[in-house]
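Supplementary Methods. Inverse-folding protocol.

Structures were first reduced to a discrete structure-token string of length 221. This string, shown here, constituted the complete conditioning input.
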């Protein structure tokens, strides 16, 4: 007998359910094998093992007699068939769920590949324009637009340093209103943007941008 069956007492449960059905012949007791067959499937008990378990249960119920009453033969066969049919149904549902999970994984992989392809295409177009154009404004616009597209940003800005007035202003923007663009003036060392401009080092911040997140980093002090 299967090790899992013995350890979890599945054979004992099967025999009890079969006894109840043979005693009453009621639909509610037959329904128990429908539920139990799903448990057997989840435990990895093969159909042929269920048949073996069924025969062992019949022997015990009939007290190991060599002949079986017609009632036991007929009703136990109905019981077994219900169990096997529902086992197959449960197994098919299991396969369908795995298939659905597999398809979801493929769709997610395709989505990520499409995103990467779009990023590579955007970067290629930007690099091509940068190499072919001597116009600074065109190059900045192309680079900024590419960054917004790749990051799927809701807002963004490209700031340049005015060496005469000694502050940063917004040169290119996305999703910002005109008042913010017009009024924004940041000196080196002020806010995150000013600290980055002062250090000359790139900075990536994940989550909410807060100046406290870069305090203590020597290159930004």
């Amino acid at each position: 007998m299967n090790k899992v069956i013995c350890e979890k007492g599945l054979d004992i449960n099967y025999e009890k359910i079969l006894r109840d059905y043979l005693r009453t012949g009621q639909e509610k007791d037959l329904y128990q094998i429908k539920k139990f067959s799903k448990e057997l499937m989840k435990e990895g008990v093969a159909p042929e093992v269920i048949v073996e378990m069924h025969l062992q249960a019949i022997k015990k119920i009939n007290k190991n007699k060599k002949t079986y009453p017609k009632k036991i033969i007929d009703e136990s066969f109905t019981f077994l068939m219900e169990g096997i049919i529902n086992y197959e149904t449960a197994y098919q549902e299991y396969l369908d769920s795995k298939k659905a999970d597999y398809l979801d994984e493929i769709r997610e992989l395709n989505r990520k590949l499409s995103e990467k392809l779009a990023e590579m295409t955007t970067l290629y177009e930007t690099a091509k324009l940068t190499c072919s154009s001597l116009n600074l404004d065109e190059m900045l616009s192309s680079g900024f637009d590419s960054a917004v597209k790749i990051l799927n940003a809701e807002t963004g800005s490209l700031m340049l340093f005015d060496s005469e007035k000694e502050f940063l202003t917004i040169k290119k923007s996305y999703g910002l209103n005109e008042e913010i663009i017009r009024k924004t003036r940041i000196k080196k060392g002020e806010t995150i943007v000013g600290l980055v401009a002062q250090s000359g080092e790139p900075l990536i911040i994940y989550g909410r941008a807060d100046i406290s997140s870069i305090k203590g980093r020597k290159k930004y002090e």
